[in-house]
């Protein structure tokens, strides 16, 4: 490599802002590729890492797990990718391939999994390395900043989508951010109806949901006009679980789509009875990605993004925290 150094935004300690640092460009190990980052999405999980809601596993670490980039160098033994390939790097960075979960097709639950931007360095940097087996081939329409939110908001959203009864027709979404704005397009494509719930008073969020194709939008304190067959909760607020459950029809599912949520208040068994289900979603599998990137260009899913230069990662995160991002925040490299 002719380039020796790179700029990166580094997480050093919970509760403190990211620091802009000049670091050596990483060297790809066997099975890895070096990637020149084009764009990296900013996810709520990054806030949970920064706030210490998720215990640190690697410090310092470069966050970012919605990476769109170009392969610029191959590590030893790399055969699937070549220089110039555009790839996506998601949250699931590596799995062991031999634990009971890997053996039964649940690599998202791997006992020894590594996660991008958490247990290994991620994409808030000009360069990163990734295992080629976990790099995702992106349809050409997504090999740019607009594709970044597809890699977590899209993928985890889609895994949440797969947790519903496939016959679900009326689908509630609590928290109308990056994931919900992508899923609403898939719902419309499949002739399903979306009922969007936002924080009370978030008229702009409700308007955005209607623009994206939601049938109805209101506050999380309101009842939808119909019983829901499923409700997906993206907001990290456990008090929404019994609220969503109270709007479910028989046999319906509440899917908790986030990695972290505040405590869930108690509720009477009668609310769960009649085969209602509460499920969580953990991580993603490569199969989710194959299915998602199969359907997304057919819809075609488009993303609403707000771009920030790399060095303004802290501003992007604070805007996400404050609910000021319409769609998804994405960092673009200098
Ligand atoms: Zn495993
Ligand atoms: Zn994420």
TrEMBL record:
- Where does the Alcohol dehydrogenase-like N-terminal domain start and stop, copy by copy? 30-139
Q: Does the keyword Zinc apply?
A: yes
Q: What is the lineage of its organism?
A: Bacteria, Pseudomonadati, Bacteroidota, Chitinophagia, Chitinophagales
- UniProt protein name: Alcohol dehydrogenase, propanol-preferring
Keyword Metal-binding in the entry? The reply is yes
Q: Name one Pfam family in it.
A: ADH_N
Regions crossing the membrane: none
User: Which spans of this chain does the record mark as coiled coil?
Assistant: none
Please provide one cellular component term from the Gene Ontology annotations of this protein.
Answer: cytoplasm
Query: Required co-factor?
Result: Zn(2+)
Gene Ontology terms, MF aspect? alcohol dehydrogenase (NAD+) activity; zinc ion binding
The UniProt entry's sequence similarity note says:
Belongs to the zinc-containing alcohol dehydrogenase family.
Instruction: State the organism named in the record.
Output: Chitinophaga ginsengisegetis
- Cite the entry's keywords alphabetically: Metal-binding, Oxidoreductase, Zinc
């Amino acid at each position: 490599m002719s380039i020796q150094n790179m700029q990166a935004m580094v997480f050093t300690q919970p509760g403190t802002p990211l620091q802009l640092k000049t670091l050596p460009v990483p060297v790809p190990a066997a099975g890895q590729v070096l990637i020149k980052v084009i764009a990296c999405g900013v996810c709520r999980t990054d806030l949970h890492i920064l706030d210490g809601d998720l215990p640190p596993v690697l410090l310092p670490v470069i966050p970012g797990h919605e990476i769109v980039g170009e392969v610029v160098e191959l590590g030893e033994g790399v055969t699937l990718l070549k220089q110039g390939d555009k790839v996506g790097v998601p949250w699931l960075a590596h799995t062991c391939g031999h634990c009971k979960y890997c053996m039964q097709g649940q690599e998202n639950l791997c006992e020894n999994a590594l996660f991008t931007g958490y247990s290994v360095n991620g994409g808030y940097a000009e360069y990163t390395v990734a295992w080629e087996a976990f790099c995702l081939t992106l349809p050409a329409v997504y090999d740019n900043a607009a594709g970044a939110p597809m890699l977590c908001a899209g993928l985890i959203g889609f895994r949440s989508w797969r947790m519903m009864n496939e016959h679900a027709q009326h689908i509630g979404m609590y928290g109308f951010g990056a994931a919900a704005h992508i899923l609403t397009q898939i719902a419309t494509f499949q002739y399903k109806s979306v009922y969007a719930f936002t924080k009370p008073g978030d008229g702009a969020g409700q308007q955005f949901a209607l623009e994206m194709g939601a049938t109805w939008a209101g506050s999380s304190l309101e009842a939808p006009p119909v019983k829901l067959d499923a409700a997906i909760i993206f907001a990290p607020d456990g008090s929404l679980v019994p609220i969503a459950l109270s709007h479910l029809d028989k046999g319906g599912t509440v899917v908790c789509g986030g990695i972290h949520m505040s405590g869930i208040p108690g509720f009477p068994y009668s609310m769960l009875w009649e085969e209602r289900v509460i499920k969580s979603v953990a991580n993603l599998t490569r199969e989710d990605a194959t299915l998602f990137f199969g359907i997304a260009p057919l819809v075609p899913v488009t993303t609403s993004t707000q771009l920030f230069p790399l060095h303004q990662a802290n501003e992007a995160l604070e805007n996400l925290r404050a609910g000021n991002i319409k769609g998804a925040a994405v960092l673009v490299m200098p």
